[in-house]
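Dear Dr. H.,

I hope your travels went smoothly. While you were away I took the liberty of generating a structure for the chain from your last submission, since the lab meeting agenda had it listed for discussion. I wanted you to have the full record in hand beforehand rather than looking at slides cold. The sequence, exactly as received, is reproduced here:
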Amino acid sequence: MTQKLQQTEKIIVVVGPTASGKSGTAVELAKEVNGEIIYADSVAVYRGLDVGSAKPTETERGGIPHHLIDVADPTERYDAMRYAREAESAVTDIATRGRVPIIAGGTGLYVKALVYGLVPTPEADREVRVALRARVKTDGAESLHEELAAVDPDSAVKIKPQDGVRIVRALEIYYATGLPAEEVRKRHGFSEPRYNTLYLGLSIEREILYRRIDERVVEMIRGGIVEEVQGLIDRGCARDAHALGAIGYKEICAHLQGAMDLRETIALIQKNTRRLAKRQMTWFRTIPDITWFLHPYSIGEMTNDIKRFMRETTGEST
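The corresponding predicted structure, in token form, is as follows:
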């Protein structure tokens, strides 16, 4: 029954680089088409990571239900597989109630995981995982990085020697399969789409986008991201937690450890966020059939596209 629903359900996906206005656009569209929003943001899923993820406030949400915000503790590791599972449930719930599911966010992997699905990567034996994590604490991550370089050199090149979490995961995959992590991921890949999807892309002139990114970072500082990160650490969130590896948070962690002053920190966050925006656009342009809208965006045109799409039949016999 669930698979049949997935084949006929229609979803709207609003994508674009960070600071392009996805959240506000999605809210306006939801008001026009009786929709609800499913966030696709790998930072906004974490409770307590508010300022740095630019989560919409209750006022900014405009009374529209938002799903998959604040669904994980920052000490957890939230991944695309979990997102796909929880977003699928939200899509079915929204559609069953006669409303339009609108996915909005800049994490392209989350979007693809929902639309196409992912094959689960193999889980290591629990004893292996515990042993590897214990060795990180006793021998240091660099020691395991040398081990990773011997069995999976490609992953070792991509993973920093100090990144114990990713090193352990890559070794878990190798010891579970006998294959390097990248080879396992290539064999899994993406399958056929599970939903009838309308993609709406937000494109903004680079100069304007970069100015908005720079201004957003300054607002993050004024909004208290330094205090937010310090509070997370004080409540037991480790500095090397997956959640604090996000852009904005990792630089603030370094600042709090005295690695750089606030001015240098701001400049680094701005630079890294601009690079993120470039990578996001590269990723989204690999998705076929996106209708791109240029800034300033026309909510009216997007609304018409959605209404037309929702009226269309799936082409399946009833």
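Two observations you may find useful: The longest helix spans residues 262-284. The chain has two domains: 2-118+190-311, 126-188.

With kind regards,
E. W.
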